[in-house]
Amino acid sequence: MENNLVESFLEFLQNDKKLSDNTLQSYNRDIKLYCNYLEENHMDMVKTDSDEIKEYLESLKTKGKAVSTVSRNLASLRSFYQYLHRTKVITDDPTVNIESPKIERKPPKILTSEQIELLLEQPKCVDLKGYRDKAMLELVYATGIRVTELISLNIDDINLEEGYIKCLGKSKERVIPIGSLAINALKEYMEKSRNILIKDENDHALFVNVNGQRLTRQGFWKIIKQYKTQANIDVDITPHTLRHSFAVHLLENGAELRAIQEMLGHSDISSTQVYAQIGQNRIKDVYMKTHPRA
Questions:
Q1: Which residues participate in catalysis according to the annotation?
Q2: Residue range 14-25: mean pLDDT, rounded
Q3: Is the model's pTM score more than 0.85?
Q4: Can you spell out the DSSP letters for 36-97?
């Protein structure tokens, strides 16, 4: 029965909530982990109460799980039990009065303009991979798009003549302008690399691997790691680091917060305001280091 309830819940998330594959996989992992715990402790999912769920969350902490991981697991269980309550499988939701563990929000890591320049200089346009990698890195920094959005781009989503891309984010499609350097890198990739890498002329994927298949998230992470090492940059860099750097550098150069919110695809301005705080802190650091009377 429990397996049927989990499958029914995941189908609901996929068909009714229209969640992405990555989010669905995250829910699936969290719920399956919880089911394993229930089985090991001879507990019934439908009869579980709030104290037992709290004990489960404590067991995650005991195993060394990060607070953010425990919080995400609780969020998954909340959604699951809310679904069971709405579908009248249970009469009371046991997660209602369980408080989420407080997560200490660390400011996102960003690169300096110099580090960005150094990173973007690494791909050499001397082979097919070099053209592709150059175009990808330039595009991510030019637009601030998420890695999932990047690898999901199709050739019809870019307009190099007008200088913009269309990007389908978490909630809606948005149009993001791109600058001349990214445009030139994309043109060179399209003309000198993609047409050779692609195996099927009907394939619309913009970025493909050496086998002609759409590049994966893991593939792009490896690309960044390779060039970070090559550039001897002593800061951890992820695709999101480039997104954060894009936002802060725009703010430092006078862009309005609302415009950045639109480009990043944030539904809530509070998600964007963190970059304003980072920008202010960086200005303060510069002042303290350089002003003769600081």
A1: 146, 170, 240, 243, 266, 275
A2: 85
A3: no
A4: HHHHHTT--GGG--HHHHHHHHHHHHHTT--HHHHHHHHHHHHHHHHHHHHTTS-SS-TTTT
